[in-house]
């Protein structure tokens, strides 16, 4: 965006509905801002007054507020004696969340309030359909609109055939072929994106090169792919919002090595929409599409209308998602049990301090 143009909150996605929702915070003397970069305990926030550094105090339980790049927040403005402080996080319209690599039951927020979730896949590497399906489930579940961008078309002799293969596993999703080297497809991407766009993909997929093409300048650092294993280095160390010249903002992310699923029931249904549609014609409403008689999904496989691989992938991701949900349920039960014990100890302490009179 030209330096002559003074950025406003509207350039970062602020709208009339946000303004109406913020009225109660404004009445308290707070100001709105969007988190363009989040760190532990601090963040960079763009406000009507410009970019400021703000602190993120612990919440009422003593834990750190879960703040994410893309969040809209209410801030106590800075004074001569103190820095700006985040006091509230506004409701998220969408959120990209994956399971943590550590396997804990709490998901990891990758981006908030995104309109387009762009899945970036390199055509210089063999296509991994299962990985694309994982990312699609995550994207659909976020509340944003998925978009698949195939990069490095100049390094693939059958790029458009590959695009057809990807389109077959991405029902309802636009699939674009691009090359940052030749410029192929970049205008198509510009036409397809709007609002806040997040780029997701593994290291070396070409996210930063694509981002620089969209930005019109080399604002995002680029590293070459290693010759030894074909993998890229983590070029982007932080999730950060950058304004786009034609309007909207871009959120580049570090490369995703792992794409664990976290509570993506609806996302799976949309990713495997053809299976979901077929399931409506199964004899049994609770058909698991395994060996049940009258299964429309299995019939479609027999007729050659549905690849077996597609159903196998659906079952595999369903099992993983169910396992993640079970971990979450176990954590909630443990927290409830711990709270009950703490209340019991509190009651005993009160009784000892204030014994009942006989």
Describe the model.
With 358 residues, this protein is an alpha/beta fold. Among the domains are: 9-89, OB fold (Dihydrolipoamide Acetyltransferase, E2P) (Beta Barrel), CATH 2.40.50; 95-252, 3-Layer(aba) Sandwich (Rossmann fold). 33% of the residues lie in helices and 20% in strands. The chain is built from ten helices and 13 strands. The chain has helices spanning 16-21, 23-26, 129-142, 159-168, 186-192, 207-215, 265-271, 273-279, 296-302, 308-353, and strands at residues 31-39, 42-47, 50-55, 72-76, 84-89, 95-98, 108-112, 116-122, 145-151, 174-177, 196-200, 240-243, 249-252. The strands form three sheets. The protein has a six-stranded mixed β-sheet with strand order 10-9-8-11-13-12, sandwiched between helices. Strands 1-2-3-5-4 form a five-stranded mixed barrel. The longest helix is centred in the C-terminal third of the chain and has 46 residues, at 308-353. It is globular. The protein starts with 15 loop residues before the first helix and ends in a 5-residue tail after the last helix.
